[in-house]
Write a structure and sequence with these properties.
Blueprint (H helix, E strand, L loop, with lengths): L9 H18 L3 H16 L9 H5 L6 H13 L3 H7 L4 H5 L8 H11 L4 H9 L10 H17 L4 E2 H14 L5 E3 L1 H4 L4 E2 L2 E5 L3 H6 L6 E5 L3 E6 L2 E7 L5 H9 L2 H13 L2 E4 L2 E4 L5 E2 L4 H7 L15 H6 L14 E5 L10 H10 L4 E4 L8 H15 L5 E9 L10 H4 L4 E5 L8 H12 L6 E2 L17 H11 L2 E5 L9 H9 L4 E4 L11 H10 L13 H8 L1
Parallel strand pairs: 4-7, 11-12, 12-13, 13-14, 14-15, 15-16, 16-17
Antiparallel strand pairs: 1-3, 2-4, 5-6, 6-7, 8-9, 9-10
Helix pairs in contact: 1-2, 1-7, 8-9, 13-15, 20-21, 22-23
């Protein structure tokens, strides 16, 4: 076993322990041992001190961690894993573990499929579903078989598109190839898309210098006089070279979208020009007019500059021609974060940590929204008292809130007497994702009718690349939000980015407030607010549409 190059974090330790629990369950080991590893993983995740820095005696003082697991945590700290996990991994085929990525297939289900039907791969599972062999197993039936069939379809539909943080990691490699900074990022990343396919770059530097620097790249897929296509960190990158004086149209064309460029081309033709990456070509004389910036192109066409986030052919060009585009919300308009978790539930940051982070960002407020399923009403009252004490030491004020579970019947995780004492309540679906659309939608509608519910959290439940949105009628939810005065969340976690821009814009049109929250569980995740604001901009939101652009007094008035 090799020694890890970086420091082992509590998250690393917890993930190894949780993985051990899953493997034990797949292998059919008794649930007592499985539960021991699950409990230990949760305890490590909640620790404020680095588990890797504790000795075995200190570790055994933590509830739920015995001598055996304490020794294994010390192994993880030294090597990144532990021997018993490696031995167990050798007995469970890796293809079986991959099946945990199929919705509806948990470790216990997987054990049955493996031992009773000999299923090892997703192809095996698909054939068993097609042959209706699953429904013959005890505890399965046609309904579960159909749910797994849907899960297989979703599993196969997963694309190689990157999340925005993944794209940013690739862009760090791009920056290393352009030390002089003579390039601009274009494509869907620049437009603020939730996921990104290829990285598009417009560069004004020396193409030969780039090619000579490509030792940092995985491979060159092809090159010509104007473009170089390469693979960086496993992602496709396309670099288009141009001169500084022609950068305006080059950046426009590389940013897209196709629909936007087609409409922009029509505007150019109506004024006697043809739009090309090198500039605007006079239709009569063939003379090329070049531009150093996008603003110059828009000005010549008699348009207001269209922000990249709006370039999706959804009416933005018509408004730009009338100089009537909305004044989009910006990150500096945000006065606080509405969705944050702490060590009181499943977060890894204390109240003091959160307040420090709020001060550092210049926020007026941060709402503490730990999960109702993990914080009893009695513990919530203690948290509120600690919030009051913490607020005396900080300019950023912590507000007492909760992310309350919407149960299967639409009731909430806390009783009304508890909800009434909170400054802000987010109601979220965290279970029962397989319910049909009408049932799940009515759950959410019922929750919204509770006078204490202020926001519906991550309304579609999606996890990018991991879980598709659950079946929910967002048109009904949005209409009911308008009736009840409930806000819909724009969850800024880059793994969620929920709502999508088309639903944000629809909510805006219906007069529904949007609430941007990071769902932060760690200090570093407060910066994810930028992803939520980009999504809000794609949904045409102005500062007035976003709940947390209000000052503290305005927010408290809105929730009262």
């Amino acid at each position: 076993m090799e020694t890890p190059e970086r420091q082992v974090t509590n998250r690393d330790v917890a993930e190894r322990l949780a993985f051990m629990a899953r493997l034990l369950e797949i292998a059919g080991v008794d649930r007592y041992r499985t539960g021991a590893y699950e409990r230990a993983a949760r305890q490590v995740e909640r620790l404020s001190l680095p588990a890797a820095g504790l000795d075995e005696e200190e570790l055994t003082r933590i509830p739920g961690i015995g001598v055996r697991i304490a020794g294994q945590i010390r192994e993880i700290a030294a090597t990144g894993t532990f021997r018993e996990l490696e031995d167990l991994q050798a007995t469970v085929p890796g293809s079986i573990v991959e099946l945990l990525g199929v919705a509806g297939v948990g470790p216990r289900t997987l054990h049955t499929l493996w031992k009773r039907l000999g299923i090892l791969t997703v192809d095996d599972l698909e054939q068993a579903v097609k042959g209706h062999r699953l429904r013959a197993l005890p505890g399965f039936g046609a309904k579960k078989e159909e749910a797994i069939k849907r899960g297989i379809r979703q599993f196969r539909q997963r694309s190689d598109r990157m999340t925005r943080p993944q794209a940013e990691a690739v862009l760090a490699s791009v920056a290393a190839l352009f030390p002089d900074g003579d390039y601009a990022v274009a494509g869907s990343y620049r437009r603020g898309s939730s996921t990104v396919g290829r990285i598009e770059i417009v560069a004004t530097g020396d193409r030969c210098a780039l090619v000579n620097n490509l030792g940092a790249a995985d491979a060159i897929a092809g090159e010509n006089a104007e473009e170089v296509s390469l693979s960086l960190a496993g992602a496709g990158v396309n670099v288009r070279f141009t001169e500084p004086g022609r950068c305006g149209t080059a950046l426009l064309c590389a940013t897209g979208s196709r629909g936007f460029l087609a409409r922009l081309g029509e505007v150019a033709l109506a004024r006697g020009y043809r739009l090309a990456p090198d500039g605007l070509v006079d239709s009569a004389s063939g003379r090329l007019q070049t531009f150093g910036s996008e603003e110059e192109v828009f000005a010549l066409l008699g348009m207001a500059p269209v922000p990249p986030e709006l370039r999706e052919d959804r009416g933005e060009i018509e408004l730009a021609l009338r100089h009537a585009l909305p004044d989009l919300v910006d990150l500096h308009d945000v006065r606080g974060d509405l969705h944050v978790h702490t060590t009181w539930s499943d977060g890894r940051q204390s109240l003091e940590d959160v307040a420090d982070a709020g001060d550092a960002r210049g926020y007026e407020y941060v709402v503490i929204t730990d999960h109702s399923s993990r914080v009893s009403p009695e513990a919530l009252a203690k948290q509120q008292a600690e919030i009051e004490r913490t607020n005396r030491r900080h300019a950023c004020q912590l507000l007492s809130g909760s992310e309350v579970d919407i149960k299967s019947d639409g009731t909430l995780g806390y009783q009304n007497r508890v909800l009434a004492d909170l400054d802000l309540v987010i109601a979220s679906v965290h279970s029962g994702f397989a319910q049909d659309q009408d049932v799940l939608t009515r759950r959410v509608l019922t929750a919204m009718e509770n006078e204490h519910v202020d926001i519906v959290g991550h309304p579609t439940g999606r996890l990018l690349g991991r879980r598709s949105p659950y079946a929910i009628d967002l048109a009904r939810v949005t209409a009911h939000a308008a009736e009840t005065g409930t806000a819909l969340e724009i969850n800024a976690s880059p793994h969620r980015l929920d709502l999508e821009d088309i639903y944000i814009r629809h909510a805006k049109k219906e007069g529904v407030k949007l609430a941007a929250g990071t769902d932060a569980h760690r200090i570093g995740e407060f910066s994810n607010m930028r992803y939520g604001i980009v999504l809000a901009r794609r949904g045409w939101c102005t500062p007035d549409d976003i709940l947390n652009t209000l000052p503290l007094s305005g927010l408290l008035e809105w929730t009262s």
